[in-house]
Amino acid sequence: MGEQRRDGRQARDSRDRIQNAAGAPGGGALPEEARAWEALVATARRTVTDGLVVGTSGNVSARVGDTVLVTPSGVPYDRLTPGDITGVDLTGRQVLGTLTPTSELPMHLAVYRRTDARAVVHTHAVHATAVSTLVTVLPSVHYMTGALGGPVRVAPYATYGTEELAENTLRALDGRTGCLLQNHGTLTYGTTLDQAFDRTAQLEWMCRLWLTASSVPGRTPTLLTDAQLAEAGERLRTYGQRP
Fold this sequence. Notes:
Layout: H1 2-21, H2 31-49, E1 59-64, E2 67-70, E3 87-89, E4 94-96, H3 105-114, E5 119-123, H4 126-132, E6 154-155, H5 163-173, E7 178-181, E8 185-190, H6 193-214, H7 226-236
Parallel strand pairs: 6-7
Antiparallel strand pairs: 1-2, 1-5, 2-3, 3-4, 5-8, 7-8
Helix pairs in contact: 3-5, 4-6
């Protein structure tokens, strides 16, 4: 009986938040969710300005408690406002906003359910997508490979927005914080939106580096060994300023 009452309260709370979102600035979100939405929109716009996506391709999400804020489907990022906040719970049930969440929601939710991710960035970056059509693992041409946990795998192709793609992505991410999606793009995650975005940008740069080096006639790029990558990864864990 207690479980039924609790489930009923949660359902009413979800309905109230959705109804509030229809007309309220910030979509009826809690303050922390509103701040996260503002950062999410800024990150999504950055993927466009930095050339990682075109139009409404790609998507960004952030987890606040048990709520996952996501970019809505088919809405240009420069048109998003505080009232457009879109959020779901970890089962995919919409709890914030009235806009339809991204079609890649299954992939985002799979990452949150299986990792410690607090933010996910998915792009259709040109060089990374090109590499995803050529190899099954990005050759280790730079020590920043260690920042993603090791050699970056390519998740086998599956139709976008499907559970199959979500499962393929999870396998490619095993022990990694980023992967390529065959004939599709990239996915990275982190503990913050900035970290997830930076990993996406680094992955695109490494793909461009490998394509450039491997295009020189008669030459083969030198690759780093597993030991070299492991050593770099250890050093990268303490890189930068300490809090």
